[in-house]
Specification:
The complex is a heterodimer of chains A (205) and B (377). Chain A has 3 helices and 2 strands; from the N terminus they run H-H-H-E-E. With 205 residues, chain A is mostly helical. In chain A, strands 1-2 form a two-stranded antiparallel ribbon. In chain A, strand 1 and strand 2 form a beta hairpin. The termini of chain A are far apart. Chain B is built from 2 helices and 28 strands. In chain B, the strands form 7 sheets. In chain B, strands 1-28-27-26 form a 4-stranded antiparallel β-sheet, with no helix packed on it. The longest helix of chain B is centred in the first third of the chain and has 29 residues. The chains are: A mainly alpha (205), B mainly beta (377). At the A-B interface, helix 1, helix 2 and strand 1 of A face helix 1, helix 2, strand 1, strand 5 and strand 21 of B.
Chain lengths: 205, 377
């Protein structure tokens, strides 16, 4: 901008107007918020430092952990092995038939067992009956996770009602969806109805 | 105050914070007079010993057509819900391996799922930043899909983890990529409390995991990409009760110890740790040495009923069973027969502690149970 010429009585010329820089309000608020958050954090850290004066050492907590752990039963931890003679036969029999010695199957024990590989078919859900496919006595082998069943023999007279298929002792089927047409060869058996169930076969979706 | 002055104030505060954190770290070190393993050894504890057939895979749940990301057991019965990259939730009967529900999700990008305490509903969340609730007893629509019964929206980032408040079908807690956790009232669909966030003290990065205390459901732990875990009281959303430092990477998973006074965590730094919530002490580190420099990340953890075993899933497909007292690996489910072929992404123990379920990127879930001998009563 050109310099302005003035006569002697005129006021001194003002500098040309400059465009104003945009206000930093958004950045200011953000910076203030960050600073305040950190100052708050300082307060919390100070509190924590003071609290350490009265906190017991770690050994006390370690003792509590050890006492808790050793004082509680754990379904997944092996304990003392104790096999009865009658079970050894079934263990050998099932182990020999199953082609997979990592599976243990015995009748009438209170262990949680795995299903032998060769009995891995739907018909072997029938407790106590030999498998129609392989002829091996179906194992009472499902780990029954209900707390009521934990020590019960599956499908004995005192079977719990989480057995599959449902026994006479079990509550009636509450499945409301058994309008029953097979969707595809891979049927989903509704465990409470013993029927081919009508919800979509997952393999076909 | 000008922006420049504020920036200076911010820098000065940051320096003070770092200095205080260092002082805290040193003071805590002085209080760590032992850890669980040293104490247990001094008491003559011997490690848990597993035979080859003691923990076996007794079920493989096949049906997902994509990676399994999350699973949850019902609190009572033997049902499992799983969430997968294939955009579905499947509800399984764990005893029979049968699928009772296959729920096609409105948003396929699901990351987490949970069963309600009653077993009547399931919740899921993911990249849509929402948590969707499905009532399993609802009528399906004309396409055979289960309708969404409630949508919990409000997060500004993905929902990474969700858990129902124990014994309350009407409340759940979510963890999110927006750095917050939220306690929801499902009946109204509204947020009851927001933990952390822009204007409150909390995590400074994505929150990846949440675990509610089974002994005191007002307390929960969150794990975050900021390498910390935080303890929250649902009555006080303005700040965490305590922050737990120690991990050197994202804390992917947190789980309360059965006694309710400790919790475990698993991280991208390859370690699991046990912390005490009352004192803040790190009681134990569970770290397996690896020959190469890259230790696999811990994706998921669970404690056995007694707390003696810590199950930890890793990105390389390993699933270590740690003896928590002696900090030794006693079994690797990833090397057993019928193990998963890929990363273990999630795992969880059944309500009575007699079965473990693992989920994997190989699209399967597996049930592991005790196949050995026990003392006969």
């Amino acid at each position: 901008m050109s310099d302005l010429k003035t006569n002697g009585s005129a006021p001194p010329s003002l500098p040309p107007p400059q465009p104003r820089s945009p206000p930093h309000l958004h950045g200011k608020r953000r910076e203030l918020s960050r600073a305040q958050m950190l100052e708050r954090e300082i307060g919390f850290l100070d509190e924590e430092l003071k609290s350490l004066e009265s906190i017991p050492p770690a050994s006390r907590s370690c003792k509590e952990v050890a006492e808790f752990v050793t004082g509680n039963v754990d379904p997944l931890i092996p304990t003392i092995k104790k096999t009865r003679k009658s079970w050894r036969f079934w263990k050998w029999f099932c182990g020999a038939c199953c082609f997979d010695f990592s599976c243990i199957c015995c009748r009438g024990c209170s262990c949680n067992l795995s299903m032998p590989r060769c009995c891995d078919c739907m018909t072997c859900n029938s407790c106590g009956n030999p498998c129609r496919n392989c002829g091996i006595p179906a194992c009472q082998c499902f780990p029954c996770c209900s707390s009521k069943c934990f020590k019960k023999w599956k499908c004995s007279l005192n079977c719990c009602c989480c057995c599959v298929p449902k026994r006479p002792c079990c509550p009636p089927c509450s499945c409301t969806r058994c309008t029953c047409y097979p969707k595809c060869p891979n049927l989903n058996m509704c465990s409470c109805c013993n029927k081919s169930c009508c919800f979509p076969c997952y393999y076909c979706m | 105050m000008s922006v420049a002055e504020l920036k200076e104030r911010h820098m000065a505060a940051a320096e003070t914070v770092n200095s205080l954190k260092e002082r805290l770290k040193q003071k805590r070190l002085l209080l760590l007079d032992t850890d669980v393993a040293r104490y247990a050894r001094s008491q003559g504890q011997t490690r848990v010993s597993f035979g080859l057939t003691d923990l076996v895979c007794c079920r493989t749940l096949q049906g997902h057509t994509g990676k399994v990301y999350s699973m949850d057991w019902t609190p009572e019965k033997n049902r499992i819900v799983s969430a997968s990259q294939d955009g579905r939730l499947i509800v399984w009967n764990a005893l029979t391996s049968q699928k009772t529900h296959a729920i096609k999700l409105p948003c396929a990008w699901v990351m987490t799922c949970a069963f309600s305490p009653s077993g009547q509903s399931v919740a899921c969340g993911g990249l849509d930043s929402m948590c969707s609730i499905f009532n399993l007893n609802s009528q399906t629509d004309k396409d055979g899909n289960l309708p969404v019964s409630r949508v919990l929206s409000g997060h500004k980032g993905y929902v990474s983890s969700c858990q129902y408040v124990p014994d309350e079908d009407t409340h759940l807690i979510t963890a999110s990529g927006d750095q917050t956790c939220v306690l929801w009232d499902i009946t109204t669909g509204l947020r009851t409390s927001v933990f952390g966030g822009e204007f409150q003290s909390g995590h400074t990065a994505d929150v990846l995991s949440v675990s509610i205390n089974g002994s005191n459901s007002r307390m929960f732990i969150s794990g975050s990409c900021d390498s910390t875990a935080r303890l929250w009281d649902t009555r006080v959303a303005s700040r965490a009760v305590r922050t737990f430092h120690g991990h050197e990477g994202d804390v992917n998973t947190v789980k309360f110890f059965p006694d309710g006074h400790r919790f475990g965590s698993g991280s991208d730094d390859g370690t699991c740790r046990l912390f005490d919530i009352r004192t803040g002490h790190q009681l134990q580190e569970y770290n397996q040495q690896h020959d190469d420099n890259e230790a696999p990340h811990v994706t998921s953890i669970a404690f056995s009923t007694s707390g003696r075993l810590l199950f930890a899933g890793y990105t390389n497909g390993d699933c270590y069973v740690w003896d928590t007292l002696l900090a030794e690996v006693v079994l690797n489910l990833g090397k057993l027969q019928n193990s998963h072929d890929s990363r273990i992404s999630c795992l969880g123990l059944s309500a009575d502690g007699s079965a473990l379920c693992t989920g994997s990127w190989d699209s399967n879930l597996k049930i592991w149970a005790f196949g050995g001998h026990r003392r006969v009563h």
